[in-house]
Amino acid sequence: MSLGDRQAATSFLQRSAISIQGIQQFLGGESVTNVGDRHKLAAILGKLLDSKQVLPIGHATLLLPAVQSAREAARRAQKLRDLGLSATGAQQFVAGLPMNGADDRKILPQVVFVALASAPVPRGAGYNQMTLDDTAGKER
User: Fold this and answer.
1) CA 16 from chain center: how many Å?
2) What pTM did the predictor assign?
3) Per residue of the chain (140 residues), what is the pLDDT tens digit?
């Protein structure tokens, strides 16, 4: 992992309200000790994994948020398994539990680096970008 990748991930995770200790543990491949940090990391990684995928949802799922939540957790765990995590590690991470496998803990930061690198770069012309055109010329 390059220094630039590590700095980008650190900045992203700080903006996402992960504690400094949690960031260091996560990026260092250690077990994240803070329960709140583990839940936030699971949510962040879930959003990164889901950023471009839309799932077909049935009427029953729309009516039962718990069913939808369980379905999303299972789907995210499957995506993590597809990326190389063990089944146990993926389920532990999605549930916000401490991850036992050192190999699993080393894979997760790499997933974040790849997801951040492939995320679309913010472009200008959004509602919060202002430009000033103060060129000399005739007033209209």
Assistant:
1) 9
2) 0.59
3) 677 878 888 888 999 899 999 999 998 889 899 999 999 988 888 787 766 444 444 544 444 455 556 677 788 888 888 888 899 998 898 888 888 899 988 888 888 887 777 766 555 554 555 555 556 666 65
What Å distances lie between residue 78 and 10, 16, 97, 111, CA to CA? 26, 24, 16, 14
- Any idea which residue has 């974040």 for tokens? 112
CA distances from 15 to 18, 50, 66, 123 (A): 8, 19, 28, 19
Tell me which residue has tokens 């430009």. 131
29 neighbors 105 (Cβ within 8 angstroms): yes
Neighbours of 129 (CB within 10 A): 9
3-state secondary structure of 137: coil
Angle (CA) 56-117-37 rounded to 5° is: 75
Cα angle 36-119-3, degrees, rounded to a multiple of 5: 75
